[in-house]
Write a structure and sequence with these properties.
Helix content of chain A: under 10%
Oligomer: heterodimer
Strand order of the largest sheet of chain B: 6-13-12-7-9-11
Number of strands of chain A: 28
Shape of chain B: elongated
Distance between the termini of chain B: 12 Å
Helix content of chain B: 40-55%
Structural class of chain B: alpha/beta
Radius of gyration of chain B: 29 Å
Largest interface: A-B, 26 and 25 residues
Distance between the termini of chain A: 6 Å
Strand order of the largest sheet of chain A: 1-28-27-26
Radius of gyration of chain A: 18 Å
Largest sheet of chain B: 6 strands, mixed
């Protein structure tokens, strides 16, 4: 059961013309890897990117330095695994990727080749401090890869037979296996060479849209891959995507929009899944599921979710809403 | 009149002696080329002032041997040559292995027949044993994955670490069907380029349509494509098409057509005089000949979601509807090519097309047909790679280019069908299965067939060892006592874990060698009579 603590809105220090957007949905949430210490998190909204330094209680407009005269819709956000030392944040927008090296205070924009694609997802190497690799999935132009910490980007789409990328997930052991997945409008693709080439993954369902992906580390050599589909529920693979099984077939019949597995999945096989209008939680690797009701019964639909400190009992959750608000709750 | 001029019938045993002589001569020529330490074969040039060709590829050497002076021996050599050609054409390697296998099976088979054995029964059991060997090779075959494994295989094929590194990377990226072009470069080094999207041999129909007049290239974004093989003479035929395009506020229009008259081109240029409003580029229909053009139009249509207007189907521009248009994120064209990046065809249709082309590829028997299917699948995979081969001298560059082509062909075959422990070890390991057969057989013909095959399976390793300057008998003893998977690293002379050391053979080449050699030799053993026809070239005194 989640406990609603507070429903915050993002008007703090926000330019008036941006705050008044009627459809200011929260597209993505990202949290600092040292959230327990620094409480930093980001919310990507249609009106731009927002940063909170107090675990989501208050939010500041992060694009202030850009002096925008129109909203810069932000569709994706990721934070460096070494955020506390490199302060690097990437944000995806229509036509380009923004990079901040100071935690969101100032930004550099890299435009992707014309015609401008919409960045739908970002994935950052767990070994970013050393390899500087980051990926941007786009609608219509496939996957762009940067191996110089986001300074420049190049499309790498060999074998990616559907360039409408909706989701991405990177292996926790990317340094060794160079594996990542791209979910597209009509199926799932895997790369085992650091995103330079892709091969279609055989799934029990054909040509389904892959709305969400996540990879949980099981141990040093193994991981679980989860794929959320539009109309065939949640799929899981424990062998790097070679074989798949469907989880929670009776419960998860809706579109699976987001998957949040516990960071130490082998120790506590917890998993939170965002369906089209509700959150469901499993504490047994997807065998059984329970609906998580928002205590704020009047809250509008859920658009994004983040679990900054894992999924243990009482752990905090950030729930992004379709009206732009972010609920802070506890599990 | 020479020996080659008159018609003649040659009977047993002279026929066997002649054929054996020819087989042995040709096998002896290519034998030194087997393995990682090949000797070269000098082939005299037909032109007196040219130096002899120095060759170390059994496939190429075989092609150079046209005729032996003795007619009976020539028949034997041509029997073997035909087998070697087939093996070379099929996979581009395995020729020398096939030669030593063929020679061993034929020589030992002949001894048995001379002692009263039944050639037909022997052939039957040799072919049964061959199937056992192929099954065993299938069982041992492993798939290669990843750049590191591909690079190691490439290095064991070409012995050129820098070439192997680039080819390993390229095939890891483009995959088994991907397009890899190998060209002579301008520098001294090897370079590789990756091209996003796919391209066809085509070309802009008028240089005035280039959007970049300096680079002589047209680059278009969010383009609509009319795909056709039509020949249009009258600009009036295009008027309703252009009207529809403008009504729909399409700003970038690519016309693919077999031919447009000067008047049509002038009309199209005038229609696109304001590039902010409408930009038109016309390119030639890709492919030469009706079939190639049809294939290219079908592929373009699937890629872009368009419906082609086809001359042979009676289509004209009058039938044009907006649904005929394909769409792409980016289109480029220059004087020679038409390229598409991000075609907006249905990705499901695209995958179904690839699946059907792959199925056709697996059943295609003709190398040309397979190459064409592979090229089509490669185009759909979304990119291609080009290796530019450089060198200090022309001859160094040419040799390296040839080596790159051969390695590239074998890497592709390895990706398709996997690899086996190299250095003749996989063939040697097949002996156990034949020994089991031998133990349970009560038929002398059958036992002999298996004994012959067991002996033949040892011959590639013996030859590799000898060619590398090692004592073949000692190597055989060491390998026999070694753990499974351990064999000879011919370059170092050490017994090593072949997989660990990255010493592989391409499974397709080994299987083709076994198939060609055993069935070819088994058939040759049944030849008792040779008929020499009258040779008109010899009569007229021509060589």
């Amino acid at each position: 059961m989640m406990i609603a603590e507070q429903h915050t809105t993002m008007t703090d220090a926000t330019p008036a013309n941006i705050a008044e957007l009627p459809d200011d949905i929260v597209n993505a949430l990202a949290v600092s890897p040292r959230f327990a210490r620094d409480s930093v998190c980001f919310a990507a909204r249609n009106s731009g990117l927002y940063r909170s330094d107090d675990a989501g209680q208050s939010w500041q407009f992060a694009y202030r330095s850009l002096l925008l005269d129109a909203p810069l819709t932000t569709t994706a956000v990721v934070v460096s695994p070494e955020f506390d030392t490199d302060h690097t944040v990437f944000a995806g927008a229509h036509g380009g990727v923004l990079r901040s090296l100071d935690g969101g205070a100032t930004w550099q924009i890299t435009m992707l080749p014309s015609p401008p694609p919409l960045v739908t997802s970002l994935a950052i190497s767990p070994n970013f401090a050393n390899d500087g690799v980051v990926f941007a999935g786009t609608l219509e132009d496939g996957v762009f890869r940067s191996d110089n910490r986001g300074s420049s980007w190049a499309a790498w789409n060999f074998g990616l037979l559907d360039l409408n990328v909706l989701s991405m997930a990177i292996s926790p052991t990317f340094e060794r296996d160079e594996m990542l997945f791209a979910g597209t409008g009509s199926g799932l693709f895997r790369s085992t060479n650091g995103g330079r080439a892709w091969r279609e993954v055989d799934l029990p369902v054909e040509f389904t849209a892959m709305l969400s992906l996540a990879i949980a580390s099981v141990d040093d050599n193994a991981s679980m891959v989860f794929a959320g589909t539009e109309d065939h529920g949640l799929l899981a693979s424990d062998n790097g995507g070679r074989a798949w099984r469907r989880l929670g077939e009776d419960v998860l019949q809706d579109a699976v929009n987001s998957i949040v597995p516990a960071p130490r999945f082998s120790a506590s096989p917890d998993m939170l899944v965002l369906l089209s209008d509700m959150l469901v939680l499993s504490r047994d690797a997807g065998e059984s599921w329970a609906v998580c009701l928002l205590d704020d019964g009047d809250a509008p639909g859920i658009a994004a979710v983040a679990a900054p400190l894992g999924l243990g009992p009482g752990a905090p959750l950030l729930v992004g809403l379709i009206d732009g608000g972010v609920l802070r709750q506890s599990l | 009149m020479s020996d080659h001029a008159s018609p003649r019938v040659v009977f047993y045993p002279r026929s066997h002696q002649g054929i054996q002589k020819g087989v042995n001569q040709l096998a002896a020529v290519v034998r030194p080329t087997l393995g990682p330490c090949p000797r070269t074969v000098a082939v005299e040039s037909t032109f007196r002032d040219k130096a002899p060709e120095l060759l170390d590829s059994a496939g190429v050497i075989t092609r150079r041997i046209i005729q032996l002076p003795e007619r009976d021996a020539d028949v034997g050599a041509m029997l073997l040559r035909h087998v070697l050609w087939r093996v070379h054409d099929e996979v581009g390697d395995g020729t020398a292995t096939a030669a030593v296998l063929f020679q061993t099976v034929y020589n030992h088979g002949l001894k048995y027949i001379a002692a009263g054995g039944n050639a037909i029964q022997l052939r039957r059991y040799l072919e049964a044993g061959m199937q056992d060997i192929l099954d065993e090779l299938d069982r041992m075959t492993v798939r290669l994955e990843g750049q590191e494994q591909l690079t190691r295989l490439a290095e064991s094929l070409c012995y050129d670490p820098s070439l192997a590194k680039l080819l390993g990377e390229m095939f890891d990226i483009v995959g088994e069907y991907g397009q890899v072009d190998i060209r002579i470069g301008y520098g001294r080094q090897l370079e590789r380029q990756y091209v996003e999207g796919m391209y066809w041999s085509s070309g802009v129909l008028s240089p005035r349509m280039f959007t970049d007049q300096v680079k002589l290239r047209a680059d278009l974004t969010n383009a609509a494509l009319l795909i056709s093989d039509l020949e249009i003479d009258d600009p009036r035929q295009f008027m309703p098409v252009i009207d529809t395009i403008m009504e729909r506020q399409i700003q970038t229009f690519v016309i693919v057509a077999e031919k447009l008259s000067d008047n049509v081109i002038t009309f199209l240029l005038s229609a696109s005089r304001d590039p902010e409003r409408l930009q038109i580029v016309a390119t030639r229909t890709p492919g030469s000949g009706a079939i190639e053009q049809m294939v290219a139009m079908e592929d373009l249509a699937i890629l872009t979601g368009g419906r082609p207007l086809i001359k042979a189907a009676g289509n004209t521009l009058r039938q044009f509807k907006i649904a005929h248009l394909g769409h792409a994120r980016r289109v480029w064209a220059d004087g020679s090519y038409l390229g598409i990046i991000g075609g907006k065809g249905d990705p499901r249709m695209l995958r179904r097309q690839i699946a059907s082309l792959r199925a056709a590829y697996k059943t295609a028997s003709e190398p040309q047909q397979r190459a064409s299917l592979q090229q089509r699948i490669g185009k759909f995979m979304g990119g291609s790679a080009t290796l530019l081969v450089g060198g200090s001298t022309d001859s160094e560059t040419n040799v390296r280019e040839e080596q790159a082509r051969k390695t590239s062909t074998l890497l592709r075959a390895a990706l398709h069908e996997g690899v086996l422990p190299g250095g003749g070890l996989a063939l040697l390991a097949c002996r156990n299965r034949l020994r089991q057969r031998l133990e349970t057989s009560a038929c002398l013909d059958e036992q002999t067939a298996y004994r012959i095959l067991i002996r033949a399976l040892e011959e590639p390793l013996r030859t590799i060892a000898t060619n590398a300057g090692h004592d073949a008998a000692a190597v055989m003893a060491q390998v026999s006592q070694a753990a499974p998977g351990w064999g000879l690293d011919a370059r170092s002379g050490e017994i090593v874990d072949m997989a660990e050391s990255g010493i592989y053979d391409v499974a397709a080449a080994q299987k083709a060698a076994i198939r060609g050699a055993v069935s070819g030799a088994a058939t040759a053993l049944t030849v008792d009579t040779v008929i020499h026809k009258r040779n008109p070239e010899a009569v007229t005194g021509r060589p």
